[in-house]
Amino acid sequence: MSVETQCGDRDGDPAASPLKYFGSEVKLERERLGWTRKELGKEAHCGYSLVAKIESGERVPGLDFARTCDRVFPHANGRFERLWPLALRLAFPPWFRRYAELEWKATVVRMFHPQLLPGLVQTPEYARAILRTARPTNLDDLVTARLERQRILAREQPARLWLIVTENVLRSMVGDEEVMRTQLRRLRDLADTPHHRVQIVKEDGRRMSYPNAFSPFGLLSFDEGNDVVHVDGFPKGFLLAEPDDVVTAEDAYDLLKAMACPPDESAELINSIAKDCYS
Asked: What is the CATH topology of the domain spanning 18-90?
């Protein structure tokens, strides 16, 4: 099966999982309206096949699909957008779901990664190339879930992103040159957005001496409540909320900001690497 269910795989049972329930409600309302899957797909800017898979609980819907359902079904009353988070969470590994819920509520997201651009800034092609390496059975759902997380950067009151990555991240090819060109344009657009900050730690051939050089981590801040730390790792990441752990992470991040290139210089470095490596 393509996505994890919480209550077993009971074919045809809409109560088997939130994903199956979402799909059964889409099918019910579509048939009540007298529409074909092709007609719904046209409204949702997707194909017949995707509508069929969503209705059968085989694919995770995007938020735009849920909003389309609320718009075109007369009796929806916002039901599909309310159900959507429950359906989406099944695309995340169980250990990541709590982090995804907190990230959705965050007002400031600080991230450091020494090996890859993090999911919050990945293009669809970059995300697919990264996720494919683990040979998952639900690749499409994982890509959808990763891209839906990025909505926090584009909502009416967007979260503020502060991203620090090493120069090697930009020079390490993921996918092919076109994937990297598109990805670096996306990164440069973020670097040029006044609300966000992007900084690059330059490589000078010496042994990495900055803090947590080999440990991707991030901090989430909220309008209400204390900051939390997320540490990425294998085979799973974990959350830290103890005050001492948060202070340690904040100190490490402050040091990284001081050691990285300033934002304007980092933006120019992104341009230079794009030209030198992927033109």
From this structure: 434 Repressor (Amino-terminal Domain) (1.10.260)
